[in-house]
Write a structure and sequence with these properties.
The protein has 355 residues and is mainly alpha-helical. Helices cover 67% and strands 3% of the residues. The chain folds into 2 domains: 3-111, no CATH class; 115-352, no CATH class. A 3-stranded mixed sheet has the order 1-3-2, sandwiched between helices. The protein starts with a helix and ends with a helix.
Length: 355
Amino acid sequence: MKNKLRNAIALSLIPQIILVKWLAGHTDWVESFYSTGIYPWISQFFRSLFGWIPFSVGEIIYTLLVVLVFRYILRNRRKIKTKPLLFLRDNIMVLAVFYFTFHICWGLNYYRKPLSETLAVNEKATYEDIKSLTETLIEKTNALQLQITQDSTAMVNVPYNRNEIFERTIASYNNLDDQMPFLEYRRPSVKKSMFSIMSSYMGIGGYLNPFTNEAQVNKKTPVFRFPVVAAHEIGHQIGYSAENETNLIGYMVTAENEDIYFQYSASAYALAYCLSAVHTTDEKEFERLYTNINEGVRKNYRELQDFHEDYENPFEPIFKSVFSTFLKANNQADGVQSYSRVVHLLVGYHEKNPL
């Protein structure tokens, strides 16, 4: 590649950034022309291309890229030392290509219209609203746990393997087409991540590969939590990027499933976020509420806690900090804390759709 072309590609990063920042202030345009315009075609193309393959093509590509980067550095280490500016230029060129591809393939969804507007729900909840929903969710979760196990002290064991959970999750999306057309999901491509052990150490339950549109789910995730995580990642696939929004989508899709194990998974998931919100404000009230939860439900929560503790490591906060910075750079000002903002959406959603 000629130097002039390399320079031009590298310099293109500046107008790209300016354009994306401009689009951030025009959510209606992004919603109309990208998120509900060309993006569904782009995403379905990639899902058609890679969805039938039983393993993650994107993760293989990532692995090859890492190998190629190390190979390039080793083979060109002398050139890098003698011509550092050219090396910097080439890095910026690669970044410009990455930035463009990322936003065209998926990233512009960060700037679409908020889901709260689509659902016409309030996105601001008071502490009393959250506490009230928490109490309702405790009743709901306890009832589902007891209905499944017939023993309030028994942990719920979901009887499906992870592939069966994928199939039932996809069916949930299809069943909601008429009721919630914005959740339309065609040509599925959801897979167990080959990097699940690494993801567990990084505290990641799943992710969407924006370049292949494959939804990756950490197969180490406890099975009772797996349905909501799978639905969450598919939520990213259909064009919702904000983590609080895909948390809500994951909850809605799983809760609407006719299978009681899925309903339990969704209810326990929402309850955990609400309890966390209460704990942040009033620890004594949290303790009072927690004592009202069936022992079987608490065992499931301990199962999840044990899972996280098994993979706890000193580098996890670094991974989360990097991811938080990435989210903040992409229109999510709260970073990783945006996940917990689902509580406000849950309150708004259940104001319109009482439990």
